[in-house]
Structures are given as C-alpha cells and as structure tokens.
Amino acid sequence: MTQRKVLVTGAAGFIGAFLVKKLLETTDDKIVGLDNVNSYYDPGIKEARLRMLAEADVDGHFEFVRGDLCDAALIERLFAENGFDVVVNLAAQAGVRYSIENPKAYIDSNLIGFFNILEGCRHHPVKHLVYASSSSVYGGNEKVPFSEDDRVDSPVSLYAATKKSNELMAAAYSKLYSIPATGLRFFTVYGPMGRPDMAYFGFTEKLRRGDTIKIFNMGDCRRDFTYVDDIVEGVCRVVGGAPEVRMGADGLPMAAHRVYNIGNSHPESLLDFVDTLQRVLVEEGVLSADYDFEAHKELVPMQPGDVPVTYADTSALERDFGYKPATPLEDGLRAFAMWYREYYGEC
Q1: How many domains does the chain have?
Q2: Is residue 1 very low, low, confident or very high in pLDDT (cuts 50, 70, 90)?
Q3: pTM of the predicted model as reported, rounded to 2 decimal places
Q4: Is 106 considered catalytic here?
Q5: Residue range of the domain that includes 123
Q6: 257 occurs within a structural domain
Q7: E-strand spans in the chain?
Q8: One of 106, 159, 200, 340 is an active-site residue; which one?
Q9: What CATH code is carried by the domain that includes residue 178?
C-alpha cells in the first residue's frame, strides 16, 4: 500500500486514539494527530491514550499536535505543511446532555471547527475527507432500523443539529470544490479507555462510589451499543474507499458525498444492559460479589434530548465495504471492566 499522509483530529479522544493505533499497527501511513486535550472529561484518560500511541509508534510515523480545531491559522498551517491525502475528522464536542447546558461549545467545535477543516480540504485538496456524524441525527425517528435514507430534519438536541449540519456542510463543499467526503453515523460507542460521560462508564463510577444509577424512561429504552474496535474497523475500510467525483448533466461536478451508519444492529434494552454490566463488573473484580445492585438502581422518566431507541441499518456499509460490526455486548463490556480494574484498581 502506498504511504499516505493522514490527519486525524480528536486523536486523544476515544475513537481517534484507537484509530491512530490501528493505522500505526497495520499501515505505513504518516499520521498527524490533533487534539486540544480539554477537560470536558478527565484529561488523564486522554493522556493515557497518548501514551498508548507513543508505545505503538515504533517507526516514528506519528506526530501529535496539541491544538484547537477552532484555531484557523493552525489548521491552515497543518494542511499547508503536510499535504494530507486523507483527513479523518473525529474532533467534536460530544454529549447530548451537555449541549443543553453549554450550547456555545458545540457551535465552536462542531460548526466553526468543522468549517476550518472543510476550508483546509478546499485550499489543499485531499483524496478523501471522512468525518464523524452521529446516530443522534435520527432524533425521535419511530421507524426502525434507522436507514441513511430516512429523513433527519427533526433533531431533539443541539448536538444532533450540529452533526446534521456537518453532513450538509460536507455535501455542499463536496459539490462546490470536488472534495470526496464520507460521513459516518456512529451508534453508542463503548469499550475500554472510553468516555466517562457515557452510561456504561458513568454507571460503573457511581456503583463504585455507592451512588444510585438512574435508568431513564423507566428502563424502556434500547440502545445499539457498538464496540470501539468495530467502529475503528469500519472507519479504516471507509477511508480506503473514497466516493468518485462525477460530472452531472449540467457539466458541473456532482457532490461526491456519502453517509453510512456504523452500528451493531442489535439494540439492547437498558435493563438488560445494566444486568450484563453489573455481572461482568463483579466477575472481573471491579465490584464485590455481594454488591446490592437493587439498592442502587432507580427508574426515572425520560430526560430532554434523549430518544427511546437507536437501531442501525448497516446494509449500505455491508454492500459497499463488506463489513458489519458484530462484537457481542458482553464481550465488549468485559473488555471495559478488565481495563477499568487495571486502570483504577480492584474493589
């Protein structure tokens, strides 16, 4: 495989770090990773991911840049100096609930920051821009499973609105400037070294402290949990298959832009999810064998920004790339529990 120059934004983030690790282990790519290592959640976990990447970088193919996506001058310099073949934009302000309390952070990172990336791709043409969208764009869609052909114009959170905006912005730039671009709608990513604001991680933290975990919509929610390694494998396959720029009937280039779901296509009820989580936490020594789970669970109503179900139709991904995520929830949660015990210690 020809050596590529790749920019990965959000390289100290959950998906970004594991993507860089896989690229370092399986390709000869020269990779520049960008991340501001902010304090939205414990920066210590982000620093641990960076140490993981330093260990994986045996050939010196990885350069980490500590900087902000909103710094237009920095983004321009990175593009000008490196001549990237591929850009994978994973940097974003994540979290549905946080967007209700701190909307400006989402405008800055998810809109202005993404605009800077698009401008970089415009002025320094790349062979493929791959960017993170989200299953949240489906909002309260009642048709399941969620298909890329479904309407996604009724977001229930600002986070979802910014992700749909990313898709529209990328499509427009692809049309105007012939940028091959692919958006990936990730479904509830989980696994070791993950984000503490995600349910599986937050529940574990609270149970360890003896706090009560709240299960929303009285437990009547289902989530399409997707293991991080499956997400990364999907990203790697998509990166290598840029959409073709074609001419339209008007003699102008058409938008070379696609969107794919990446999900496990197996929604789990939150109650079953919690049962599996608590079992593996005990079995892996994170919690004691006599832990009283019933005393630490509370069923509560739905909260703003949440949806009752997420469920990915991945037939397009299977058709175009021959790939379908398949890691069972128990296997993924066990991998998380084993990492958690090693990182934080036994009960």
Answers
A1: 1
A2: low
A3: 0.95
A4: no
A5: 5-189+226-263+311-326
A6: yes
A7: 5-9, 30-35, 62-66, 86-89, 128-134, 181-186, 189-190, 213-215, 222-223, 226-227, 257-262, 268-269, 297-299
A8: 159
A9: 3.40.50.720
